[in-house]
Amino acid sequence: MWPGHPRPYADELFSSWLARLASSNGLPVRHFLTAIGQGPSWERDPDVTASTPLLRTLAEGTGQSIEALRTLTLAPLAGPQETPGVSGDVSWILQMDPGYRRRRRHGLQACLRCLKEATWFKKQWRCAYVVACSLHDQILVDRCHACQKPIRVWQLGGEKQGGILSISRRCFTCKVDLTDTAPVSIQERSLWNYSCEIEGMVTSGRAIAESPWCRRLGESIRAIRRDDVLRKVSARVPFERCSLAARLTIIRTLLQTKK
Ligand SMILES: [Zn+2]
Ligand SMILES: [Zn+2]
Questions:
Q1: What's the gap in Å between 198 CA and the centre of ligand 1?
Q2: Are 181 and 145 in contact (CB under 8 A)?
């Protein structure tokens, strides 16, 4: 077993656990993966495409089961019918730039209050239809408030927090504390109800596409995006590549038209 082998939290995102694992063994994720002979795993979105050999190696080094580690990935949510695109793109899941160089897609979101309590990232925050945290009644963030760069969990590095080696909350680019900004409350009851429903779907672990509620949601969102105003907001890119601000506008419009 490796010296550092943190247990995953329930609902933790695979790449978040992997970043904590690498950090607790004193290495950045890239060097850690190279050291265990799994360097190329980072070429595609690891949360969606984590291979069985990678999961087996990690299971052996940490005492976790392969099945337990697979539940941290987003593959069960995407469902068996979904074949990931070149970089690991699938429906429902925010698109991410894998690797270290490109930093354009804002594919990871977070609740500032959740992050302040403990720095680890939840699986549900990579779902394109999740825009808020019902637990804290807060709108999520999908970028650094100071430099606007995406949040990339494997670049945050390690930091001692209360005696425990955890993921740093400092922006990889400008080094500000990502949580050092005022959170924004949800305000409308309809958005809070919606958030509870979609969070429940994501944390159930079932394939999202198999939920009739989510299918209807996807159809409604596609329908209202034909609206001229919303088309400008999201510039016709796939919903899974829209910014949080654009997705929030679309979902708020949908909830208002449903009243
Ligand atoms: Zn929260
Ligand atoms: Zn920054």
A1: 14
A2: yes
pTM for the complete prediction?
A: 0.91
CA distances (Å), origin 242, targets 47, 75, 196, 234? 19, 21, 21, 6
DSSP annotation of 159 reads E
33 Cβ neighbours under 8 A, 6+ residues apart: 22, 39, 41, 42
Per-residue pLDDT averaged across 151-167, rounded? Answer: 76
State how far the Cα of 22 lies from the Cα of 244, in Å rounded to an integer.
Answer: 29
Q: Which ligand is nearest to the CA of 120?
A: 1
Domain that holds residue 38: 1-259
List the Cα angle 120/124/129 in 5-degree steps: 140
Q: What is the DSSP letter of 100?
A: S
- Count of the separate structural domains present in the chain: 1
Q: State the residue for tokens 């509620």.
A: 213
Cα(94) to ligand 2 centroid in Å equals 20
What are 190-225's pLDDT values in tens digits?
999 999 999 998 888 888 888 888 888 888 888 888
For residues 195 and 251, give the distance between their C-alpha atoms in angstroms, rounded to a whole number. 10
Tell me, in angstroms, the distance from the centre of ligand 2 to residue 16's CA: 19
Expressed in angstroms and rounded, the spacing between residue 257 Cα and the centre of ligand 2 is 36
pLDDT digits (tens, 9 = 90+) for 72-109: 999 888 877 667 766 667 888 998 876 666 678 899 99
